[in-house]
Amino acid sequence: MPGNDERHDKPDPRLRAELLRYRNLLFDRLTGLPTLPVALGEIRKLIAGSRRTVGVICVDLSQTVGLENSFGWQSTDELIMSLAQLMEVFNDQVMGGKGQLFEEVIRTGSFFLFFAREGLTTEELAEVSQLVREFIGSSAVGRELDTNGFDVNIGYSLFVEDPLIRFERLVYTAARDARDMAVDAEKREEMLQYRELAQIIAGERIRTRFQPIMYLGDFSVLGHEALSLGPPNTIFENAERLFNFAARSEFGHALDRLCRRHAVMVAPNHVKEGQLLFLNTAAVSFSDPSFSADFGVECNVERQNVVLELTERTAIHDLSAFRRTLAAFKDEGFKIAVDDAGAGYSSLSTIAELAPDFLKFDRSMVSRIHESKIKQELLKTLMDMADRTGSRVIAEGIEEAEELEVMRDIGVELGQGYYLERPSRAY
Description:
This protein is α/β, with parallel strands linked by helices. Helix content is 46%, strand content 17%.
């Protein structure tokens, strides 16, 4: 019957769903790369009919949880995709397209490059891995990861086909050994960074720069933000790397306290009497019993001239209790600012609950705002909220004349950025 034929010709939706599920396990839809089970046949072709040695390079971006905490999962996926594309370019341009690239498991950020050469040695393999490292390091994605304190770890191994050992086992063992080497390198590097940060804190080797916060009408100075950075010619000279690594270790609070104390100590070198001193402060530091003592009678800065900047990305688990804590600090004379407003994870209602004295709008809100009507309308909305909560607005990262013009037109009172004035030398 025609009806029966039609039923047989129609694809079974359950079968299609099952096939799609298996395909998603074997191919990463994000990067388009196959996983190891799919790549086995192509790897076998590399040495078909020869006694060539197979080299394995593992490129491991294993700190995906840390990346997602810093950038969000969407940006982390973009980084993984960019790294996969970069490895494909390396295979084409440096390896002549003769390698086989695949992932260990989908969306983990671990990639493997298999290639074969006659008489390949571990020394030659180490040279190839160094080429990979330099290729990634010179790329935009490599620079972005390095700036934010994340590393791409590289390991390698090799094998020769042995008729007495199952080929699949040789491949899986070589991939495991290469990844183990990459992970071990990560652990060694992390331990070195851990020790260096401990020495920086113990030796109080922190430097502070000051950037003015100005009235956008006449460019007079309201105050200065203290910007901390590590010792020169070290991996922690970069502030983003310094604070991101500290946040992943138990040194976060100790570093926050050291930066605050050092900034207060050197502030008289740059901050004039009566001007405000803005100090970046982690939420956990507000529960430090020694916090207020740092601003005792011998302190160089009076409390009423200190603004404690709370980054909006900081998790606040008990908002009611934290609000009471902030109220106690305000009673002592401190002012409160919410940093990076509009760029973090907190809701507008959370900011309203905290009722800060200042709202600092992130560079991402300010950048190229003269080209974006959406940004302009969003900033107007945030300005209305600030007006209702009694908060004064500061625009961060003003770097172009057109951005300054829009800030003035919208009615932003205060700002800071390279277009206005660069940070001072480090003290």
